[in-house]
Amino acid sequence: MNDAIILIMIMGGVAVIGSAIGVMIRSKRHAKSRIDISALKEAIGHNNIESVYFQRSKIVVSVKNPRDADLDAIKATGAIGINVVGKKIKFYYERNNEAIVDALTRDEGSGSS
């Protein structure tokens, strides 16, 4: 009987520690999820952007000249899966892609999401 109680206590302790580690990892990821919209616009080129929309979980930016966009700088903002197809630059982030599209389409030109 005492062995069963000890085993339950050990399992409970492991569950608590595992939960704490999970919370720490999620909060660390959330801290990194802030995207500097002004840096993203700078990387694409403020005057280079023709339109921005959300399609199938990707951000699609139609540009005047794709060569004017700095793909390394876009990647440095945390963008994943960057592809250039014609005059469209397609990429995504781990989260908040629709909010990022909204921020890119605003006329403000700065901020983070």
What is the total domain count? 2
In DSSP terms (H or I, runs of 4 or more residues), the helix count works out at 4
Instruction: Kindly identify the CATH topology of the largest domain.
Output: Gyrase A, domain 2
What is the structural class?
Answer: alpha+beta
Q: Would you identify the CATH H-level superfamily of the largest domain?
A: Glucose permease domain IIB
- Main sheet, how many strands, which sense, barrel? 4 strands, antiparallel
Q: Record the strand order, biggest sheet.
A: 1-2-4-3
Overall morphology? rod-shaped
Under the CATH scheme, which class of the largest domain?
Alpha Beta
- Give the termini separation: 54 Å
Average pLDDT metric: 85
Helix residue percentage? 40-55%
CATH architecture of the largest domain: 2-Layer Sandwich
Integer-rounded radius of gyration = 21 Å
Characterization of this structure:
The N and C termini lie far apart (54 Å). The chain is 48% helix and 21% strand. 16% of the residues are buried. Mean pLDDT is 85; it is low at 108-113. A 4-stranded antiparallel sheet has the order 1-2-4-3. It folds into 2 domains: 1-32; 37-105, Glucose permease domain IIB (Gyrase A, domain 2, 2-Layer Sandwich). It is an alpha+beta fold and 113 residues long. The longest helix is centred in the first third of the chain and has 31 residues, at 2-32. Strand 1 (49-55) and strand 2 (58-63) form a beta hairpin. It has 4 helices and 4 strands.
